[in-house]
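Q: What would this complex look like in 3D?
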Amino acid sequence: MPPLTIIGSPPSAATQRVLVVARLLKLEYTLHRINYRSKEHKSEDFLATKNPFGLIPVLQDGDFTLYESRAICKYLIAKYQGDSSVQLLPSDVEGVAQVDQYMSVETCQFEPICDAFARETLLKKIRLGQSPDPEKVKQYRQDFTNLLTTYEHILNGKRYLCGEFMTLADVCHLPMGQYMSILEQRTCYYQRIGQMLRVGGDLSGKRKLGKKCGFLRRQRYDVL
Amino acid sequence: MPPLTIIGSPPSAATQRVLVVARLLKLEYTLHRINYRSKEHKSEDFLATKNPFGLIPVLQDGDFTLYESRAICKYLIAKYQGDSSVQLLPSDVEGVAQVDQYMSVETCQFEPICDAFARETLLKKIRLGQSPDPEKVKQYRQDFTNLLTTYEHILNGKRYLCGEFMTLADVCHLPMGQYMSILEQRTCYYQRIGQMLRVGGDLSGKRKLGKKCGFLRRQRYDVL
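A: Here is my prediction, written as structure tokens for the whole assembly.
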């Protein structure tokens, strides 16, 4: 196997997305933790050779370099899923299309709401020393609740988003879903998200897959 | 070929993304124009059988239903590209990964900036009767200019985002790119976007592919 290097920061949701997939596929990799303090990700070398947008994560697979977390996940699966017992992408055209559909929902609807909520309730205080705006928090919480209601409708009678097996679509929801569960743990969001995506149990140390990804929850708590 | 139905609204950028791909692949399809006035896309039937999020476009291919425009594009290519002379997705793992990478950049960076700009300069007036906030317009314009600078860096020495051939990554940029070109035509954005993505000429009626997609520009102008 060629040497894989994942350049990122474990607290970042996008990096976690790639790390979870790498762990599920049992891939050997080197994690290069980006140095935020020295602004390594905005350095001339990083922009020229890793990602011109100055964002993480970045994957290096031999001479091949790739950025954007969801694209990296799909690449790792396309190239290495064959060696793994975990099948995160189906082999039929319709099955792949459904995974793409729910990944797009995660990208365009789920993450933006989670991100806005996290910025208002957590990052605003940490980065700017400002208090959350109660009206915005109320609105984002309502938006998220409405979204979960639709997810519950989708998951009615199914174990995972695409049916009986966990796919990349479920995994992609995990990092921001866990942020929301931690930020909102007092209001039972954890249980609701876990039940909603059917991945909380599988990926949080409670079931079979948990041991592979338990590192994720610990790092979350370290950050928060 | 099974009967394809595209449910959407031609002025919507997401619908246009699917229509362009369908035209490039020379697919026969029925376009069902959604009735916004009767809120057809929020009706009980639409939410239950088409898209639970109440959004367009939706594809129906026989009994198979799919939503989210970029997922629909990939599905159409995976299923029907074989019959077409246009190759919008490469066949190698690294090539597909690069298309995914630039599609993700389009989704997460390009569209949000274009969308924010269009909302402030156009939709705010149409929908709310309010004037644009000059400070916001200035900020969005600067954000977009910065983004274009990075795209120009990426395209240095290449004809398209992924090399010498137009892929789905380029096509996905077209609808919002054209909105920007129309909104900002007095400031030479059209030329800059066209040059940037190398698709303006190819898809606007000036070159070989233009005739297939010229309908798009006309519909744009009808809307605006």
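A: To summarize the key features: The radius of gyration of chain A is 18 Å. Chain A has a mean pLDDT of 83.
Q: Very helpful, thank you.
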